[in-house]
């Protein structure tokens, strides 16, 4: 039996590793996706003052620290039984919207777009952000850089620091914004809305008008019929900052809708001996292995699943884009993994529109940004949508607010099983007896997991280029037979 | 002049240092003029084997971020040290251990028990733990060994320079890169930052007299926006923390938490803060002093928030 190792494909709180075992005839015997790293935040948070959790837990990920900061801050509201002021809630959501704009922009243009805009079989040297810019023009390339930079400015202004913000407190935030800052944020938000619209047009022109790409999106290889999870507001519209968690089946039927505090009734995690990362699944459906369908508790928590789990978008332009997406894909839910890129752009437009709304809110510059908690802290749970999945923080403290127990279900972790299954399916469909394993073929396997944007592939986010990939094929004795590698 | 050959690597880290490296924005083009990046897993072809094949000392500079948490981190640290003329611990994790270093209050088994058994969402009736080697029907799978103790880079290999911060600010990163580009290198062991002194010297808050009768936790009181946070009774760590970041947190009305590490000449940041604290308590009555100090929860985890693995304590003894 031969063994192919793709090590490391990305970082998921560490370096991901794919191992593909081949049968003697060259077909795929099995595929494994391992996460070789653990840092143990659930343990060493014990003993720490609860109010420090926003700053401690964001060190889980330096690419999406805002998500942990926000989940932790909201868990503190719950823990200390204090409602944030209206302005504080809006400032948090404003920062979070700016964060979504930057994060989705970087993912789409740097990681996702090269496959579609430049083409999955283009030489690796062209299949990167520079290749994208060459196709779509320098003007849009400039807009990508500008959108990121400007929205990072918002994060620093509101959150205190550009990476690892410090503004979250139970009952509010630490700093108000002034009129001058507000006006600047509004200006950036307007540009971001335009940028969101242009990005959807790029997708329309380049992907949707190209039958080959559209066929690929709709192909069986990239289809997975799992449950969809996402946070929704009181009207069942997508919300990143707050709401209830809704789970919708592969047939579009609602399985459950629950408050963050009820997460333990709905989510369980499985341990496997060959990886450090756990596999969450829907408790009431149960773990049936790495399979999709209604009877398997595997669920996805991605931009596409958020849209599948909701009834629409809360802002007008995003709603329009949402309707268009589903009418093109043949209705809801869409189980096409590659359509996740499209859903991400719908979310990008929503985040920009929401940012604009909040920047124009008359309360946003109010100095009333904090309520001081007075109740005794005990237990707090909160959920936000991280760009890479539903993120839940759960703390139990003593009466002094010292963490006794901490549990975290982190964005990408939700998607561990479906990611694994997408890779496995693509490997099985593309690696066939007698078919030479080429670079383009590996890229098609890689395309199966890229839509999930596994965290800390994020790091590649910020760079021109794709994830580095090395595939080594070993024979049954472990001797190296062939090596393929590529980078930027 | 031949271009500098630079390698960048991440060990146990959050990725924030990678983002921080990129935060030099347009200066990255300037860097590209004078340097070739020969190894950068997040951006470039990732080949351990290629690094192994490089001649010893053939890389001019290695910027290494992340702590040493497992077997693979250690292996890469040793390998890159052998290949590099200059080894730089970039960012708080590799310099001091940082927040993941708080893990040294516990050990591997306690961490595994919590993560894989106790956590309320975990369903693991057979008490399965990850194994470094595991036989599956098709063959064997391997993952690196998770260590009991988080170590800094300098506790693992010889380090030439340190760049502080979680993560380092843009200007700090550029200061280090400029020194490398110009060849005007500071003495070995230097911590590269714009300041060797305490953060207080660059904090715009007004300092008067430090006399504290009661300590407050950040959520308990809204601070005066102009005055020194420590004087108001908040545990602002600036007094024991190297400057250079521009006092970002105090300017957002939040106390400094110490991410730039100790000031020049201080070995143990936590002990330094403790001695600073002792001098500002406004009492001579041992009982009252004790009462004032009781308001500080988790002193070890707070004073050593970023530096436990690098401190004189290093780790808790687990019996």
Largest sheet of chain B: 5 strands, parallel
What fold name goes in the CATH topology slot of the domain at 83-160 and 179-216 and 336-372 in chain A?
Answer: Cytochrome-c3 Hydrogenase, chain B
Give the neighbour order of strands across the main sheet of chain A.
3-2-1-15-16
> Which protein chains are joined by the largest interface, and how many residues does each one contribute?
A-B, 93 and 75 residues
Please explain how this structure is put together.
The complex is a heterodimer of chains A (488) and B (319). Among the domains of chain A are: 100 residues, no CATH class; 153 residues, Cytochrome-c3 Hydrogenase, chain B, CATH 1.10.645. In chain A, a hairpin with a 5-residue loop joins β2 and β3. With 488 residues, chain A is α+β, with helices and mostly antiparallel strands. Chain A contains 16 helices and 16 strands. About 5% of the residues of chain A have low confidence. In chain A, strands 3-2-1-15-16 form a five-stranded antiparallel sheet, covered by helices on one side. Chain A is 42% helix and 17% strand. With 319 residues, chain B is an alpha/beta fold. Chain B folds into three domains: 123 residues, NADH:ubiquinone oxidoreductase-like, 20kDa subunit (Rossmann fold, 3-Layer(aba) Sandwich); 46 residues, no CATH class; 105 residues, no CATH class. Chain B is 29% helix and 15% strand. Chain B has eleven helices and ten strands. In chain B, the strands form three sheets. Chain B has a five-stranded parallel sheet, with helices on both faces. The mean pLDDT of chain B is 92. At the A-B interface, β2, β3, α1, β9 and α16 of A face α1, α6, β6 and α8 of B. β9 of chain A pairs parallel with β6 of chain B.
């Amino acid at each position: 039996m031969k063994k192919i190792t793709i090590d490391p494909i990305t970082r998921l709180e560490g370096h991901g590793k794919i191992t593909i075992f081949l049968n003697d005839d060259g077909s795929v015997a099995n595929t494994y996706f391992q996460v070789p790293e653990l840092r143990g935040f659930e343990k060493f948070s014990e003993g720490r003052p609860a109010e420090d959790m926003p700053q401690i837990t964001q060190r889980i990920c330096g690419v999406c620290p805002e998500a942990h900061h926000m989940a932790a801050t909201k868990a503190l509201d719950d823990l200390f039984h204090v409602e944030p002021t209206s302005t504080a809630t809006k400032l948090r959501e404003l920062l979070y919207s700016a964060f979504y704009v930057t994060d989705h922009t970087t993912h789409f243009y740097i990681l996702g777009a090269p496959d579609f805009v430049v083409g999955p079989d283009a030489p690796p040297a062209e299949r990167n952000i520079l290749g994208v810019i060459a196709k779509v023009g320098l003007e849009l390339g400039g807009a990508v850089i500008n959108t990121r930079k400007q929205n990072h400015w918002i994060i620093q202004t509101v959150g205190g620091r550009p990476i690892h913000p410090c503004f979250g407190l139970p009952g509010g935030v630490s700093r108000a914004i002034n009129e001058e800052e507000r006006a600047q944020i509004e200006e950036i938000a307007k540009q971001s809305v335009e940028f969101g619209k242009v990005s959807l047009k790029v997708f329309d022109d380049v992907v949707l008008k190209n039958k080959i790409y559209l066929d690929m999106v709709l192909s069986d290889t990239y289809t997975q019929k799992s449950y969809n999870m996402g946070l929704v507001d009181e009207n069942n519209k997508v919300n990143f900052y707050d709401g209830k968690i809704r789970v919708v089946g592969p047939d579009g039927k609602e399985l459950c809708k629950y408050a963050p505090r009820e997460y333990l009734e709905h989510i369980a995690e499985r341990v496997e001996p060959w990886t450090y990362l756990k596999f969450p699944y829907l408790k009431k459906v149960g773990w049936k292995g790495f399979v999709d369908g209604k009877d398997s508790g595997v669920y996805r928590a991605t931009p596409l699943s958020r849209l599948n789990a909701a009834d629409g978008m809360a802002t007008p332009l995003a709603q329009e884009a949402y309707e268009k997406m589903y009418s093109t894909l043949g209705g809801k839910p869409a189980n096409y993994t590659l359509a996740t890129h499209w859903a991400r752009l719908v979310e990008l437009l929503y985040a920009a529109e929401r940012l604009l709304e909040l920047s124009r809110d008359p309360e946003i510059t109010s100095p009333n940004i904090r309520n001081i908690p007075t109740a005794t802290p005990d237990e707090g749970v909160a959920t936000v949508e991280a760009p890479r999945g539903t993120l839940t923080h759960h703390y139990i403290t003593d009466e002094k607010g010292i963490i006794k127990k901490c549990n975290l279900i982190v964005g990408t972790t939700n998607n561990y099983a479906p990611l694994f299954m997408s890779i496995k399916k693509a490997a099985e469909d593309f690696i066939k007896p007698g078919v030479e394993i080429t670079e383009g073929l590996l890229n098609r396997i890689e395309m199966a997991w890229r839509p999930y944007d596994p965290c800390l592939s994020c790091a590649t986010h910020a760079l021109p280029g794709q994830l580095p990939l090395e595939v080594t094929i070993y024979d049954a004795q472990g001797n190296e037979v062939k090596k393929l590698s590529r980078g930027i | 002049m031949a271009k500098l050959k630079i390698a960048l690597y991440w060990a146990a880290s959050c990725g924030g240092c990678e983002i921080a490296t990129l935060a030099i924005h347009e200066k990255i083009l300037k860097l590209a003029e004078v340097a070739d990046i020969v190894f950068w897993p997040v951006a470039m072809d990732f080949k351990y084997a290629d690094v192994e094949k490089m001649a010893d000392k053939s890389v001019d500079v290695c910027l290494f971020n992340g702590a040493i948490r497992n077997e693979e981190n250690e292996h890469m640290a040793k390998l890159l040290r052998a290949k590099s003329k200059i080894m730089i611990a970039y960012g708080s994790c590799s310099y001091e251990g940082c927040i993941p270093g708080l893990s040294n209050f516990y050990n591997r088994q306690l961490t595994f028990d919590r993560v894989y058994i106790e956590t309320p969402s975990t369903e693991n009736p057979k008490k399965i733990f990850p194994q470094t080697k595991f036989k599956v029907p098709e063959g064997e799978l391997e993952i690196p060994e998770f260590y009991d103790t988080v170590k800094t880079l300098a506790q693992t290999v010889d380090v030439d320079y340190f760049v502080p911060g979680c993560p380092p600010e843009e200007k700090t990163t550029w200061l280090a890169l400029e020194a490398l580009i110009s060849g005007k290198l500071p003495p070995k062991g230097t911590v590269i930052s714009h300041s060797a002194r305490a953060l207080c010297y660059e904090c715009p808050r007004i300092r008067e007299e430090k006399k504290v009768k009661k300590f407050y936790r950040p959520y308990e009181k809204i601070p005066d926006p102009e005055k020194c946070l420590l004087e108001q009774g908040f545990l602002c760590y600036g007094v024991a923390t190297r400057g250079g970041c521009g006092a970002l947190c105090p300017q957002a009305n939040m106390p400094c938490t110490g991410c730039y590490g100790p000031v020049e000449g201080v070995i143990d940041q936590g002990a330094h803060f403790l001695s600073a604290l002792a001098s500002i308590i406004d009492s001579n009555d041992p009982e009252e002093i004790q009462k004032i100090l009781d308001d500080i929860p988790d002193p070890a985890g707070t004073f050593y928030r970023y530096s436990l693995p690098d401190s004189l304590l290093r780790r808790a003894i687990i019996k």
